[in-house]
Each structure stands twice: as structure tokens, then as C-alpha cells.
Amino acid sequence: MRLLSFIALLVVLPFGAPQVSAQSYPTKPVRMIVPWAPGGTTDILGRVIAQKMSEKWGQPVIVENRGGAAGNIGGEAAAKSAPDGYTLLLGTMSSHAMNQFLYEKMSFDPVADLAPISLVANVATVLVVHPSLPVNNVNELIALARAKPGQLNFASGGIASFNQLCAELLKMSTKIDIVHVPYKGGGPAVADLVGGKVHMLFTGAPVTMPHIKAGRLKVLAVTDSQRSAALPDTPTMGESVPGYEFNNWYGVMAPAGTPRPIIDLVNAEVHRILALPDVRERFSGLGADPTPSTPEKFGAVMKTDADKWGRIIRQAGVRAE
Q1: Nearest-CA neighbor of 119 among 311, 308, 302, 313?
Q2: 53-85 as b/e: b if 16+ CB within 10 A
Q3: Which residues contact 35 (CB under 8 A, 6 or more apart)?
Q4: Structural domains of the chain sorted by starting position, each given as residue range(s) with its CATH number in brackets
Q5: pLDDT at 22 over 50
Q6: What's the pLDDT score for residue 321?
Q7: 3-state DSSP helix/strand/coil percent for the chain, to nearest 5?
Q8: What is the pTM of this model?
Q9: Strand ranges inside the chain, DSSP E
Q10: Neighbours of 211 (CB within 10 A)
């Protein structure tokens, strides 16, 4: 009888364990890996989400910054963690749709080794120029670049950065000749643009909004498929360059194999958090539009963007150093 009971328990446990785990989850602190340094957009969004989760769950959700290799170090740490729901990752479009095509060797698969839970936000990426440049919209910029081939330049946060790839997409779409000026990070690139040492830059709205409002930079467009709620009067790149689109998404993930009941629970919590008025107000100030989704939709977005940017990166011949 005892042997039969033991066998029955072995049969039931694999099916019952995830459900029981999800019902009691979390029973200990949860780690949220942010694969970038403190203070950036990913870190800010991650801390907002983590704080609200902690308040709801009664367990600490600890943000762990694991920067380096354009998000690969933090991504690998999350991918190789136990799939038990106690490690989450706030991933980005650049780290999970671009890096696999930019780096010759990857120690993990950014798509297959991580389970999508929910998109969190699209953060507006903007095309900004120095006010001295005699253009007021994208069409005028393209016309100026064609009139002066090789004389205009664009800054970036480094070779193979998303800043460069946005500009490479513009070059490919319009056949203009503009020169790449890479910097060691987005901060120095913005500083030199404000100082008039370079002509233009594609970058996240949060780091440029103060300069835009003060008139130190001129915003020409957002790269998303739709206008940003944070910059409603700013046209999209696609309005001037048909087909141009760069949606800089952020989303919560977990190691592949994390039980579906836990993924669903975390998904519901992300949806709850993104509906809170104070969170929406904070996101708006960052140029971030909340975009909660199902795990399936998030996974489809990851795959679609990986296919798209793989083609663009190969065509542009860009490689990370």
C-alpha cells in the first residue's frame, strides 16, 4: 500500500507542483535583472515595476544591475538561472532582437532561452539635431544631406549601438551619405550634440527631453510606428520615410521553462501595475508609453523584430567590436 501511494505521489507531483508553486508564489525575494548600468531608462522602468511588485506581494523584488556587452551579460545571467519564477529580466529590443546578429559569439539565445511574460513600454526614440542645422523636418534633413553628401554626420553611443542602427536604416531607406561619429556611450554623444560638435543623433527621449524643452536640441521625428503620447506633435519617421520603424520596447522575461502558471501570475501583475495612475504619470515623464501584452504577443514581437533587424544588420555590414 505504501509503495502504491508513493508511486501515485510521483505521478501527481510533476503536474501539481507548478500550480501549488503559483498559488503560493512568491515565498521569498524575487530578483529582477536589469542588464544595464544604474540610472538609465531600463533601470528606471525596472525599479518602478519592482517597487510595485514588492508592495503587492509582500516580498522584496530586488533590482540587480548586470551591465556590460550591450545587455548580454545580464541576459545570460537570467537565461542560465533556475526557471522557478524567482529570477526575472527586464529586456530591451536592442538586447533581444539585435545582439544575436551583431556579436560573432553568443553564450545564450536571447529568444529561445528566455520566456516572454509581458511587454512593459515603448520608449520613444527621437531624431534630434543641433539648432544650428537649417532643417525643421525629416524631408528637409534628407534634402540637405543629398545636397551635401558626406558633409553631415551623426553621433552614436558606440559602434553597433542602436543609435547607429537607426541611422543606418535611414541611410539605407533614403540613399543618403552621412558620416558615423561613434562615442563611448550615449551621454558623451548627447553632450557633443548639444555643444554643436556633431549634427544629429537618434536616441531615447528621456535623455533629450530637457534639452528639447530648453531649445538646446531640435526634435524632428520619433521612430515608432505611431506618434508618442509624450511628444504628440512630433511626426513619426514613417510619415516622411515610408516603412521606417524602430520601436524601442522593454519587456519582462523569465528563464525558459518557468511554469506557465507563474508566468501568467507575473503577467497579471505587470498589467495591474501599468494601469496605476502614478505609474502612467511617471512613464509619461520618461517618454514611455505603457504597452502591456500577453506572453504570446510579446514572443511574436521578439521574433518579428529579430527577423527584421537581422536583415538590416547583415545588409549594413555592422558588427560589434
Answers
A1: 302
A2: bbeebeeebebbbbbebbbbebbbbbbebebbb
A3: 42, 66, 67, 71, 72, 73, 74, 75, 78, 89, 90, 91, 92, 95
A4: 26-123+248-316 (3.40.190.150), 125-239 (3.40.190.10)
A5: yes
A6: 64
A7: 45, 20, 35
A8: 0.80
A9: 30-34, 61-65, 87-92, 114-123, 125-129, 153-156, 179-182, 200-204, 218-222, 249-255, 288-290
A10: 18
In this structure, are residues 220 and 129 in contact, taking their beta carbons and an 8 Å threshold?
yes
Residue 272 CA: distances (Å) to CA of 27, 33, 221, 233, 308: 20, 20, 31, 29, 31
- The DSSP symbol for 235 reads P
Q: Which cell is 292 given?
A: 502591456
- Nearest of 52, 8, 10, 14 to residue 30 by alpha carbon: 52
CA dist 130 and 186 (Å) reads: 16
Do residues 41 and 59 lie in contact, with contact meaning Cβ atoms separated by under 8 Å?
no
Confidence of residue 178 (pLDDT cuts 50, 70, 90): very high
Torsion sign across C-alpha atoms 64, 68, 72, 77: negative
Whether the per-residue pLDDT at 63 is higher than 60: the answer is yes
Per-residue pLDDT of 242-277, as tens digits, reads 999 998 899 999 999 999 999 999 999 999 999 999
What burial letters (b/e) apply to 282-308, b meaning 16+ CB within 10 Å?
Answer: ebeebbbbbbbbebeebbebbeebbee
Q: Is the model more confident about 137 or about 18?
A: 137
Q: Quote the pLDDT of residue 10.
A: 44
DSSP codes of every residue in 138-170: HHHHHHHHHHSTTT-EEEESSTT-HHHHHHHHH
pLDDT of residue 21: 55
User: What is the model's pLDDT at position 243?
Assistant: 92
